[in-house]
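To whoever is covering the structure queue this week,

Two jobs came back overnight. Logging them here so there's a record in the thread.

Job A:
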Amino acid sequence: MTKTERPMMKINEMMMKDLLRSASFKHRPEKRLVQTHIIVCPFCENGHPVPTDFDSIHRCNCGACYKVCGNHSLENSVGDIADELWSAEELDFVRSIPVDFCNIVIEKDFDRLLDLKHTSDFNGIERFCKYDVNLHLSLVWVKRLF
């Protein structure tokens, strides 16, 4: 046996002993699977945690912004995000020209994701009390084109 084979043999023996030791335990500690839900940016496919603050505007690394809102207030929410993306002067210019300056993506089945997260989340997720539980929610994404 060479000098290099001997240390390898010791390492293999140690690994085998560890495997046998772990197999001999009657009760193995169980690891709980943690289910995580994310939303995916439609522009760059980065994942983000599901927002629980329905008033905040959240930002992706690609520059897109997103917000949770009721289906009845989609237009106002897009305006809120536009205020976040452009300065007042830029926004006046954008609104005065009939050219598309942004991409908008609306996910209208956002309630399904919240329900899924609520049923699998250990601590649960709660809507803020000022929102009606029966209100249908949407997830709005806005990204500047240039």
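Job B:
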Amino acid sequence: FTDGESAKMRVLVVAARRDSVENLLATVRKAGLVPELVDLSAFAMVRALYVPAPVARPGGSDGEGASGEGASGEGDGARAAGAAGGEAGLATLYCYVGGVTNLAIAVGTTCAFNRVLPNGVESMAATLAERGGLTLEHARQWLQHVGLERDTEGMEGEAKILDQARQVLQRGSARIADDVRLSMEYYQSAVPDARRVEQVIVAGPGIAIEGLPAVLEAELGLAVEPRSLGQVEVIPGVLDGVEGSELTIATGLALDEVKA
């Protein structure tokens, strides 16, 4: 998009189904509340990223009887369940690390808790831009280039900016992890019958920063999986030149339904 004078900027327009929004608003109004703003991003995130847990077959995956590995619940099917949508009754924490960090805790496809955290990729980029005298776009590129895993010695780029980017990433990722941990603690104490969180799914531009999911996994003590889209099938070539990690929320809004 451009007005003819300014530089071009990319714009993504997404349409959500009216009946999906109206059903949510009807529930709020029925409770006697007057909605002033509708933020569907948490629901969209869960819809886009959710993957149902495979059903474990009796007797294990190799067809053995009750004496086999599957009888104890420790077979391949049980392990696969933890890696996909989680065990029945347990919760999954979805975390979209973008301009801010959007957090949602869901049981299956039902969102039980949502919170928007102020720290995200954009706040880190703004900090680096200010310290290094960079544009925001260049700061974002430096954050992706440096990441959190590789040694900065020998890395291409000015040493001062490399060190600044690494420091910003370390402090920023620690803040995000702290915010997520505190949100989980609040969820467990404030939500009636809160289900235990068993895994974390990380999405958004943050997963393009090498090492960020691993830092969150170490800080939270939970399995963390980076994911852009869940059950969504993408036609080959359609997303060429587009970062799939930036389309998670838009995809969730556009989905007609999600199979639980």
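Note for Job B: The CA atoms of residues 61 and 76 lie 6 Å apart.

Please reply-all if you pick these up so we don't duplicate work.
Q.
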